[in-house]
Amino acid sequence: MILELDMGNTRIKWRLRSDSGKVARGNFLSSSPFSELTAALEVAGLHTDKEPLARALVASVLGDERNRELHTWCEKKFAVTAEFARSGVGAGEVRNGYKAPELLGVDRWLALLAGYALTRQACVIVDCGSALTVDLLNSCGEHLGGYIAPGLKLMRNALQSNTQKIQMADVPSDFSLVPGRDTEACVTAAQSAMVCGLVEQALRQLRSHPEEAPALILTGGDAQWLHSCFPAAQVQVDLVLDGLSLALR
């Protein structure tokens, strides 16, 4: 079996793949102990005496301490060495567009690899997580750069922390571009307009090249929220995990 881990700022997503093609998945808070993952894997059917874990593939944006904890857990629990993906100059047909390629977030890099493998065309990849990232790929697999903005929860937290009377839920319940008639609705409408405008700007950048007909891929915890504005987009919840097997062949 192969264990794949996407260690994000808020949650750690995991996926377990067997030789027979069976897949189990789940997630837990990034601050939780790895014993929570141990219990989830046992429920999912990982029994080391019958079908041992062969590899543990990892994408992590967490710090060195948390990564060391995972490394130790993998060795003690399964006698395997955690394999951490790293951003590079290129992989397959995809080329990193950063001036210093190693500084591109590994989650973004893996999403680029998986997005291009999925579409084989120019695409905009939007990851709606703790941060909102938007990356552009042309039809040749060349990364043209991207945008980084606060995620939905961070935007709302900033308003609540720095104003006296704006109180609302952590994340908007619905996407709406209609001007609001109460404070919550006004904030939601503004967020929707800003995020929609950012994605539209990225799509325009690619459409400025006549040969490009970009696809739009949404991933991350708030992808479904944005999908209502872009119904033709593909929602790929495991995009980063899909990129792991491409980066760590």
Please describe what this structure looks like.
With 249 residues, the protein is of the alpha/beta class. The chain folds into 2 domains: 2-84, ATPase, nucleotide binding domain (Nucleotidyltransferase, domain 5, 2-Layer Sandwich), CATH 3.30.420; 90-247, ATPase, nucleotide binding domain (Nucleotidyltransferase, domain 5, 2-Layer Sandwich). Helix content is 36%, strand content 24%. The chain has 7 helices and 12 strands. The strands form 3 sheets. It has a 5-stranded mixed beta sheet, sandwiched between helices. It has a 5-stranded mixed beta sheet with strand order 10-9-8-11-12, sandwiched between helices. Helix 3 crosses helix 7. The relative contact order is 0.15. The mean pLDDT is 90.
